[in-house]
Amino acid sequence: KKNAFRSSEISMADDAILYIPKSCQNGDICRLHIALHGCEQTIEDIDDLFFTKTGYNEWAESNNIIILYPQVRKSLPLTNPHGCWDWFGYSSKKFATKNAPQMQVIMKNIEVLSEKKFHVRSRYYK
Q1: To which H or E segment does residue 45 belong?
Q2: Confidence (pTM)
Q3: pLDDT confidence of residue 119
Q4: pLDDT in tens, 29-74
Q5: Which own/partner contact pairs does 112-116 have at CB distance under 8 Å and 24+ positions apart?
Q6: Residues forming beta bridges with residue 69, ordered by sequence position
Q7: Within its chain, how far is the Cα of 22 from the centroid?
Q8: How many CA atoms lie within 13 Å of 89's alpha carbon, on the beta-carbon side?
Q9: How far is the C-alpha of 48 from the C-alpha of 99, rounded, in Å?
Q10: Peptide bond just before 77 cis, omega within 30 deg
Q11: How many CA atoms lie within 13 A of 119 on its CB side?
Q12: Are strands 17-19 and 65-69 parallel, antiparallel or unpaired?
């Protein structure tokens, strides 16, 4: 099923950050947690602070949990100027449902991760 929207239309970044604990890299079965940043916590706003300083990675390392950090971008002038996840309807009238465009993208990311068809860039890997 193909999504009928582009990431730029729903204020999502093309890339997400992924933290994979060492045990998961070595073949252990691991769970997945999705960590959504707050408004004004995009990479453009705070660089890597959300995914390196919140404690999620340390928690993930000690509990065999992969962390997916999907990213929203600011979209100007009025749609999403603070880089917020859509909790108020800027991407769709379905923003508060599992059929919301941003939630569909996150679910597609989960599918890709579960199939282990992804590429990890080491820049954000700590």
Answers
A1: helix 43-46
A2: 0.84
A3: 54
A4: 899 999 999 999 999 999 999 999 999 999 999 999 999 999 999 9
A5: 113/18, 113/32, 113/66, 113/68, 114/32
A6: 17
A7: 20
A8: 2
A9: 29
A10: yes
A11: 2
A12: antiparallel
How many Cα atoms occupy the beta-carbon half-sphere of 17 within 13 Å?
Answer: 21
Q: What is the pLDDT of residues 91-102, one digit of tens each?
A: 889 999 999 999
Residues 56, 54, 35, 46: is their CA dihedral positive or negative? Answer: negative
Which residues on neighbouring strands pair with residue 82, listed in sequence order? Answer: none
pLDDT at position 51 is 93
CA distance 61 to 76: 37
Give CA angle at 38 (75, 14), nearest 5°.
50
d(CA 2, CA 60): 31
CA 46 to chain centre: 15
Between the alpha carbon of residue 3 and those of residues 24, 104, 108, the distances in Å are 30, 8, 10
The answer, yes or no, to whether residue 120 has pLDDT greater than 90, is: no
Q: Put the strands of the sheet holding 65-69 in their side by side order.
A: 17-19, 65-69, 31-34
